[in-house]
Amino acid sequence: MSLTDRWPLPDAPGVRDALLTAYAEPTRAYHDTRHLTEVLDRLDELGGGATALPVVLAAWFHDGVYDGEPGAEERSARWAETALAEVGLDPLTVAEVARLVRLTEHHRPTDDDVHGTALSDADLAILAAPLTRYAEYVALVRAEYAHVPDDLFTRGRAAILRDLLAKPHLFHTSYAELHAFAREVGIPERGFDRDHYDVPSEWYDRVVALGAEPVTSRELIRRLVGAGLRRRKTPRR
Description:
mainly alpha, about 55% helix
């Protein structure tokens, strides 16, 4: 399926074409139509709330403006607000699209933000790509900032990566799915303990019937560690 066919508003082809023109600008090396395609592919893989209209539209707009200058996310969000309002999209959806685009500046959604975690994870998925694709990504981003001296670029990229590494976890989607399931089942928020929910024994049959998989404590920890989702207790001082 071509990118043209993946645009979710068939009555607004002009907005789609303007975005495709922006992503095809010759100054772009990484943040181009291939990146947009990859983000949409990751959202499709996540499924569920990740393919909701606001998330897909935010994916289209999140790098609508990309010129190597500060504030690109804010300008992309404002473009979304203006363009989507002009084609008659309802205000709540427009506001959610703009919120999601702004979120991609720092990629710090809360774990219960189903839309935000999906877009953030899809946008950052390149950091978990196979080595050859990741190496290509690094080179392409450097090409987009060819006008920046090596020392300044290295310091800037290092600061971005340090900020991402400072997050409790780089990717969020598994937690978002967990919180969504807990809400569906009716488990209160206070039942969440760092990286899992404690469920009363009398709820066992119900949550299993709704899709939870019974595992031992040891197996739960093994899976959390293997997925990079284990959160250890913070030592008391």
